Amino acid sequence: MRIKTKLTYGIGMLFAMIVLLGILSLSYINKLNNETHKIYTNNNYSLDYCRNMLSVLDELNTSKRALQVFTSNLQMQQKNLTEVNEKETTYKLTVHFEKHRIKKDQQSLREIRSDIYTIMTLNMASIYHKSEVAKQTAMNALLWICLTFAVCIVFALAILFRFPHSILKPIRELINGITEIANHNYDKRLNFEPTSEFGEVSTSFNKMAERLNEYRASTLADIIANKKYIEAIVNSITEPIIGLDNEKKILFINDEALNILNLKRENIIRKSAAELALKNDLLRRLVRELVNPEEKKEPLKIYADNKESYFQANYIPIRVIETGETEPHNIGDVILLKNITEFKELDTAKTTFLSTISHELKTPISAIMMSLQLLEDKRIGALNEEQESLSHSIKENSERLLSITGELLKLTQVETGKLQLMPKITKPIELIEYAIKATRMQAEKFGCHIEVEYPEKIAKLFVDSEKIAWVLTNLLSNAIHYSKENSRIIIGAQQTGDVVEMFVQDFGKGIDPRYHESIFDRYFRVPGTKVQGSGLGLSISKDFIEAQNGTLTVESEVGKGSKFIIRFNVK
Ligand code: ADP
């Protein structure tokens, strides 16, 4: 039966019992009331009339008022004839009263008194009888009301105990079923009456359990197959790969990674990488770089299989969207080691080649420059206008070649780690003046006005002045090249606390913020740059500054100009 029907029946029955009890009580109260009322009107009144008549009976012949009282009470008694023989006796009393009024004798008085006593006796008997009846009625009322009350109580108790139980029973069974499913007992089924409210729930529950059963049977085999498949993929990757969970425990690792780490699979799976790293330098470095992503990541040099190899580590976070969620969250990381030995070798070959070529080129270019100088010497002979312009062009190109070979040589120094620093105490103004002097010709050619901003007091620097001067010259040369003709350029220095800044600011075309980082990369040139160049100046400058623990940054806005700032901590 549905809970709703049970509720309706239960409460309906209780309500009916209460109504029945009410009706029963009311009808008995009414009946008792009628009976007492009847005693009062039928008999008590007659007794009162009789008592009044008796009280004035002896004065009938002497008092007028007594006669009046008697007459009026007799008349009222004549109207209140309710008992058997009362009418006849009252009639007799009337006749005897009339007789006494005429004769006024003692005989008639006795007869009157006897009649009154008879009427009183009749009424007294009736009162006794009616009280007996009322008593009986009260007893019946008490019995029936008690009986009905008892039935009500029994019924209410039955509802009170049975009803919550009948509601809770299916809910308990449902909770029990859900717990079983949560404990992976997918054979659990519910058997509620199909017509009850829980009928639909049990059908859906059974369907769900059935599907989960099928799902378990199919997924277990799938999971094992997929796991093997993934393991095979991981092992077939030729680059070393390591998978870690959020607690940095090793989830998977391929043979390549085991080989370079010199570890055995069975000793490390599900083990904490941090603990294993205590005995393994390479793993220690990988874990440290994974935990501190901001740390500079140099390629790893590894000796494996009797040869030197270089690896670049990539740290890839594993992000998944869990079922029922919308945002992905981290469940671990993959460390992928890319073998860059071949590139490294090619790079070394390139650097050696560049170094040789630029070194070899320097001597013939210097010779060309020397010859040009001689050619321009008036003592050898004057050149005509065309020859002069040709010689000027050869000079310009030779200077460019010399500067490029210079840059390439410096680059090879940086790349081969042969950068030699010779620091000495230097005033920033000396470096600025050197740069201005070195670019004077260019500045004059483009009509640029170079302004110097220099404070009265500034700390000295302990740097390789030749390299810093080269950087400032390069920055100033760029500022001249990338500004319009006749524009203003500011070169200067300032000190804020322990930091000394040297800057070169122009009001030229500026640099799009997208390229603020890339301009410091090797051979990078902002797309669309028309001025000729190698794309090496800024990258070498940055290396020179960073090699001396300084920084080189740019602040620039397209159309407004650029400001390159070198910072050194002088503390
Ligand atoms: P190069 O000037 O030889 O091309 P750099 O490394 O000195 O190489 O500069 C890289 C690129 O940065 C340049 O090609 C140019 O596009 C941009 N750049 C450098 N300095 C400035 C500047 N002051 N104003 C605008 N662009 C600049």
TrEMBL record:
One of its GO terms (biological process) is osmosensory signaling via phosphorelay pathway. The keyword Transport does not apply. Residues 356-571 form the Histidine kinase domain. One of its GO terms (molecular function) is ATP binding. InterPro entries: BphY/WalK/GraS-like (IPR050351), HAMP_dom (IPR003660), HATPase_C_sf (IPR036890), HATPase_dom (IPR003594), His_kinase_dom (IPR005467), HisK_dim/P_dom (IPR003661), HisK_dim/P_sf (IPR036097), PAS (IPR000014). Residues 165-217 form the HAMP domain. It catalyses: ATP + protein L-histidine = ADP + protein N-phospho-L-histidine. It is a multi-pass membrane protein. It is found in: Cell membrane; Membrane. This is histidine kinase. The keyword Nucleotide-binding applies. Pfam families: HAMP (PF00672), HATPase_c (PF02518), HisKA (PF00512), PAS (PF00989).
